[in-house]
Amino acid sequence: MTKREKLIGKIRARPAHADFEDVRRVLDLYGWTMRAPRSGSSHYTFAKAGEPEIITVVKHHGRVGRVYLDISARSLAWIRSIAVNTESTEPVTLEEYLGMEYPFRVIADPDGGYFVEVPDLPGCMTQVETRDEILPMIEDARHAWLETALELGREIPLPSYPEEYSGKFNLRIPKSLHRKVAGAAVRDGVSLNSYVASVLARGDAQAQVEQRLQNVEARLEQRLADLEEHLQVIRESVQHCSVEVPMPTRKG
């Protein structure tokens, strides 16, 4: 068993006892580089060439919550977003990014405290013990994430909100897929945008049909289970029921 496997096994076996050093060692074994806090931040950042995430970890907490561990581990397995973005954008300063309102998500940790993350900034997260710490700590983590992203020259997503649907978003895909999609659009005699929109619409319709079929299947399975249970009750009743049949009389 390798050193990495032993360490991961230890964390999985006792997630409630994982600490900053455990997380640091795992990330180090996977090739992530740690950067010490700057500008008075309480968060360390971890970055790796070729990875879009910048992981923020608060050091002054002895324990790293299981929700934090679970979500941070899953974040490293995300399918990487790759995009076709032909629009040029002007450089934005750290102050301008900090002035933007990024939505964040809060999850209560079963062992106490709260896990907080900024979904638009992959890997930007923290943990706190009380509700009063949520806002200052996630703002601190966001500051550390943005500062590191700018230093590394990473693309920084703009904030998104569920209620805002402008009909436009940036998408990163491999160059090979971009070439195939563009070729398909040419063959169909439509623009790339129109072709992608039609493919997404068909995929969404298919997903809805599949979801409905799954719901119907689940209901049928439940009905069959109920019928089987009812039949079993009937069988047991028949087995315990005795019927007396009168003997025929002879005529003579």
Q: Could you give the order of the helices and strands?
A: HHEEEHEHEEEHEHH
Q: Looking at the structure, what is the overall shape?
A: extended
Which structural category fits the helices and strands? mainly alpha
Task: Tell me what portion of residues adopts beta-strand conformation.
Answer: 5-15%
Description:
The chain is mainly alpha-helical. The chain folds into two domains: 3-152, no CATH class; 174-239, no CATH class. It has helices spanning 3-13, 20-29, 66-75, 94-98, 134-152, 175-188, 192-239; strands at 33-35, 43-47, 55-58, 83-84, 105-108, 114-117, 125-128, 171-172. A three-stranded antiparallel β-sheet has the order 1-2-3, sandwiched between helices. Strands 5-6-7 form a three-stranded antiparallel β-sheet, sandwiched between helices. A hairpin with a 7-residue loop joins strand 2 (43-47) and strand 3 (55-58). Helix 1 (3-13) packs antiparallel against helix 2 (20-29) and helix 6 (175-188) crosses helix 7 (192-239).
Main attributes?
252 residues, mainly alpha, 2 domains, three-stranded antiparallel sheet, 7 helices, 46% helix, 11% strand, extended
Q: What's this model, at a glance?
A:
This protein is mainly alpha-helical.
Set out the fold topology.
Layout: H1 3-13, H2 20-29, E1 33-35, E2 43-47, E3 55-58, H3 66-75, E4 83-84, H4 94-98, E5 105-108, E6 114-117, E7 125-128, H5 134-152, E8 171-172, H6 175-188, H7 192-239
Antiparallel strand pairs: 1-2, 2-3, 4-8, 5-6, 6-7
